[in-house]
Amino acid sequence: MHETDADIEALQALLDSSYEGASQHLRAITTPERRVSAADLCERLTGMCLLVVATVTADCRPVAGPVDGIFYRGSFHFGTSPTAIRARHLRARPQVTATHLPREEFAVNVHGRAEPVDVRAPDGAGLRQTLLEIYVPRYGEKWEQFIDPPDPAGPAPTYFRIAAERMFSFQMVGEPSL
């Protein structure tokens, strides 16, 4: 867990304001006891968690696909190839929705804007270190060359942070109220 107390407070404020502005239907499903607190989310979302990220084409068609999600400092981050269609969409239209749904009993949904993060810049150093902590044990020391290609002109992955405007959390507790 890399979140500061301030990160957790900001995340809780986002979760609370999102819930307050939710539709009656969503609030009937995600009752107060089914919400996940910011502190609990930060603990549950350690390591890599699969996200389905939805972007929008120029003619307003949604396109969704899986990515490795990293929850760092209270925000979802993900990487993609700089030549990927997803990256092209986000550079032109940064609106994004992402869902982490590992099973029906737990879900996190976030809506916001994708902001590029340069993991080679000082501002991206914490995320870079987190990526190394997650992927080097899984794929070996050579994984570092993936984010730091030997040829600086070579294609390094592009990382994005989802600057959340709304975020919803859900955990199944009790019977659904439909």
Keywords:
6 strands, six-stranded antiparallel barrel, 34% strand, alpha+beta, 178 residues
Summed up:
With 178 residues, this protein is α+β, with helices and mostly antiparallel strands. Helix content is 32%, strand content 34%.
Helices and strands, with pairings:
Layout: H1 5-20, H2 24-29, H3 38-44, E1 48-56, E2 62-72, E3 75-80, H4 85-92, E4 95-103, E5 106-117, H5 125-139, H6 143-147, E6 158-171
Antiparallel strand pairs: 1-2, 1-4, 2-3, 3-6, 4-5, 5-6
Structural summary, described in words:
With 178 residues, this protein is α+β, with helices and mostly antiparallel strands. It has helices at 5-20, 24-29, 38-44, 85-92, 125-139, 143-147, and strands at residues 48-56, 62-72, 75-80, 95-103, 106-117, 158-171. It has one domain: Roll (Pnp Oxidase, Chain A).
